[in-house]
Design brief:
Length: 348
């Protein structure tokens, strides 16, 4: 340690602080950290603590996917399940498996000892995040010289690469499909009224763009807000059936809400798609197993996870901590049997 300190031009205390990931009252800049680790590598220094090894050689560390506790259902959420399963499959080396952990979007992680376990133990160096950004958490990783890949959320913070589905295009594709089938009276099931969630804002923007493009009036009475659960879909259809004219097609901004619409429509004796066409948004496994199979917009959970694993592995192995970067991933319409040509919907 004395030799490293001399070669790097810093105190032994600074070396100890860096290798042990402890403050010790010594502030160490990014440039100093890079210089110290560069000297350690050049001198062939291998610590006897695995955590210090990973800090010095982050390419040897493990992968970790951090999930927000605010995501209802956690791993039981179909989209999250698709994301995690695909990320696990995409890990290139079975000796470095994917770890899973949770973080709180609102917690202040700047205080010592508050960081999620995978960051504290120090054997993880390749972090992906699914959930709204927590700046203090991402700053802690940035200070360690570790890049982060955000899956599904735009996170314009230093060192973070964001992969986000093109939600605006998802709504446009859904409405375009229904218009091409001759539907002019559409029902829209959106997220909670007033929601500022980026996904909701972009989907709503896509609806506005599509309606303007195809000359459809945006009828306030044909937009129902809720939590996009299956129950919300059922309640939305109940409301739509009281409207005149009732919509002949419904675009739900989640597959779960779309499945709720399908369930209630069938219990009311409505023919899908004869009386009512339904389009969901996600392409979760349940959309393929119902009858009739659900037309939906495929949100690229699998593609996003695989691309995220490849990107974080590349960044860590090349020792690159980029400025914030966002990439939109393409979506596509999956046409199945829940949509068909328009026919007037009779009140039931």
């Amino acid at each position: 340690m004395a030799q490293i300190a001399k070669a790097a031009g810093v105190s032994q205390g600074a070396i100890s602080s860096l290798l042990n990931d402890r403050d010790y009252g010594i502030r160490v800049s990014e440039k100093t950290r890079e210089r110290v680790f560069k000297v350690c590598r050049e001198m062939g220094y291998i610590p006897n603590d695995l955590r210090a090894v990973v800090r010095m050689y982050p390419e040897l560390g493990d992968f970790c996917l951090l999930l927000s506790t605010a995501i209802e259902g956690g791993l039981h959420d179909p989209f999250v399940h698709r994301l995690v399963a695909s990320a696990m499959t995409a890990v290139p080396d079975i000796s470095h498996p994917l770890g899973l952990a949770y973080y709180d979007e609102t917690q202040d992680y700047s205080a010592a000892g508050t960081l999620p376990h995978p960051i504290r133990v120090g054997t993880y160096s390749k972090f992906l995040v699914h959930g709204a950004p927590n700046p203090s958490l991402l700053e802690a990783l940035y200070r360690r010289g570790l890049p982060v890949v955000s899956l599904g959320y735009d996170t314009p913070l230093p060192g973070v690469v964001s992969f986000v589905p093109d939600y605006t295009q998802a709504a446009i594709l859904a409405i375009e499909h229904l218009v091409q089938l001759g539907h002019q009276h559409l029902g829209i099931i959106s997220s909670a009224f007033g929601s500022t969630h980026p996904k909701t804002l972009e989907l709503n923007h896509g609806v506005s763009v599509a309606c303007e493009k195809f000359g459809l009036p945006i009828e306030t009475q044909h937009i129902v807000y809720g939590d996009l659960s299956e129950q919300a879909g059922r309640l939305a259809l109940e409301e739509f059936l009281t409207r005149q004219p009732a919509p002949t097609a419904i675009f739900a901004m989640s597959d779960r809400a779309a499945l709720g619409v399908l369930s209630l429509a069938q219990s009311r004796g409505l023919q899908v798609p004869g009386d009512l066409s339904i389009v969901g948004c996600s392409d979760d496994p349940g959309s393929q197993t119902v009858y009739p199979p659900l037309t939906t917009v495929h949100l690229p959970a699998e593609e996003m996870a695989a691309q995220g694993i490849r990107e974080i592995d590349r960044l860590v192995n090349t020792a690159v901590v980029d400025a914030a970067r966002k990439e939109l991933l393409p979506v596509r319409l999956i046409s199945r049997a829940s949509t068909g040509p328009a026919r007037k919907l009779q009140k039931v």
